[in-house]
Design goal:
Oligomer: single chain
Helix content: 40-55%
CATH topology of the largest domain: Heat Shock Protein 90
Distance between the termini: 95 Å
CATH architecture of the largest domain: 2-Layer Sandwich
Number of domains: 4
CATH class of the largest domain: Alpha Beta
Shape: elongated
Order of helices and strands: HHHEEHHHEEEHHEHEEHEEHEEE
Radius of gyration: 40 Å
Number of helices: 11
């Protein structure tokens, strides 16, 4: 800094000497001052012009020039900043290159969308899975390239569900699963994968379970009939009758399991459309459900509350399956002498809510997220104490999803439980309607 000050001071002293000399020679100090200061200004402007030209040409290192004054100080600072910037730029480019390599290696199609839903980047799998070219389609709105209605609805509200499945826009008989995650300033990261094989495997398993269950019904019915005949045999010994009771119990359990498997296969078969189903009376559903459950407790302890003019649009066997399983579970788990409350009501959103509350042992917090899994039994239950197939809540969950309903579970250990299913308002009917706009299902 001292060197810079001395250099500028030398320039000023030189200017004053020239001014003094010119004034003495000409005898006109005004002219001398004007000429000297004009020359000094021109010299400064020349230095500024060189600096501006260097800046305009991009502050190239090969064109750096020397200046011993303030201009040189500025040039050195700019040059140092340019070197630091170049290092950062090089490091950023390397990071982006490696990131692009890593993302491009992902087998799933990956697309980066801006806040206008325009494509900013895509990897190679996006071409053969979604028909999005990694270079040619940059800047295109993704809704113009993928026009599937389910995808477009999900694109607008990606937080409404975890993912969406639809047919590939470029290849027939191919199902793709798309997941969209928000990040940054309303940007979206879209990933897609081919789930055709997984769906075919799942469908094959469903068909196998359904077919196997259906084929087992006939021989099991015959076995149950012969067991009933043996029950009336007077020659049967005491030990034989004990063994017969065990066989009948297991036969009944097997029949319930097959019935549940068939119902679960039915509810998982397809998604019900909003205007699809039969108009069902809630009162009739409750009469059938109460007749079907295992009534092992006092009728006076079961409190039912539902309007007579309440109707639902859906599938009778599946909605009754929801009611039967929830009521049956409440009866199994309720403590002796405790009341069970069953009700249908309408909430503020216009949804019909079926609710079952028991005063049983409750459910541990760590078990709540696993209750709807097939064959799951909590740590505080045993098959001997609570007989059943282990499919009841799985059926309730899948049947609820099929009808667009939501299953809610509120429970505390040793504090009882409340299971409720909220049917959406497009399935809630306050009076029996005409069937002009309803797709009626065959029984």
């Amino acid at each position: 800094m001292n060197k810079i000050l001395s250099s500028e001071a030398s320039a000023i002293v030189t200017t004053l000497i020239i001014l003094l000399f010119t004034g003495l020679v000409t005898g006109n100090w005004f002219v001398a001052a004007s000429l000297t200061l004009s020359g000094y200004i021109v010299w400064l402007y020349h230095r500024l012009a060189k600096l501006e030209k260097w800046l305009e040409r991009g502050t190239k290192a090969s064109e750096v020039y020397d200046d011993s004054g303030f201009m040189g100080y500025i040039i050195r600072h700019l040059y140092q900043q340019k070197k630091i910037h170049n290092k950062r730029k090089k490091r950023t480019k390397e990071i982006l290159r490696r990131l692009n390599q890593n993302i491009s290696a992902i087998p799933d199609a990956t697309v980066l969308l801006n806040d206008m839903l325009e494509i900013e980047w895509a990897n190679s799998p996006a071409l053969y899975l979604l028909g999005i070219h990694p270079r040619h389609d940059i800047g295109q709105r993704i809704g113009n390239l993928i026009r599937d209605p389910k995808f477009l609805r999900y694109l607008i509200t990606p937080d409404s569900k975890a993912n969406v499945e639809f047919e590939s826009p470029i290849e027939n008989n191919t199902t793709i699963q798309v997941q969209i995650v928000r990040f940054g300033r309303n940007q979206r990261l879209l990933t897609a994968r081919n789930v055709t094989d997984a769906k075919q495997l799942q469908e094959g398993l469903k068909n196998f379970v359904a077919n196997a269950s259906h084929e087992l019904k006939s021989p099991l019915t015959v076995i149950s009939g012969h067991l009933e005949m043996l029950e009336n045999d007077p020659s049967l010994s005491k030990q034989g009758r004990k063994s017969l009771k065990v066989a009948q119990k297991q036969s009944k359990r097997m029949q319930n399991l097959i019935q549940d498997l068939l119902l679960l296969s039915q509810v998982e078969s397809y998604q019900l459309q909003p205007n699809e189903g039969n108009v069902l009376s809630v009162a009739e559903i409750m009469v059938n459900s109460m007749a079907a459950v295992d009534r092992s407790c006092d009728d006076e302890l079961i409190i039912c509350d539902f309007p007579e003019d309440m109707y639902l649009l859906g599938i009778k066997t599946e909605i009754e399956g929801i009611c039967i399983n929830l009521i049956d579970n409440a009866i199994k788990y309720s403590a002796e002498g405790k009341k069970i409350e069953i009700s249908w009501s309408e909430n503020e959103e216009g949804e019909y809510v079926f609710s079952v509350t028991d005063k049983g042992p409750g459910i541990a917090k760590e078990d709540l997220d696993h209750l709807t899994e097939r064959y799951f039994r909590g740590a505080h239950t045993t098959a001997d104490k609570t007989p059943g197939s282990g499919l009841g809540l799985a059926i309730v969950q899948q049947a609820s999803i099929k009808h667009g309903a939501t299953l809610n579970i509120n429970s505390e250990l040793n504090g009882g439980s409340t299971f409720s299913v909220a049917f959406p308002n497009f399935r809630a009917i306050h009076q029996k309607p005409r069937l002009n706009n309803v797709v009626k299902l065959k029984a």
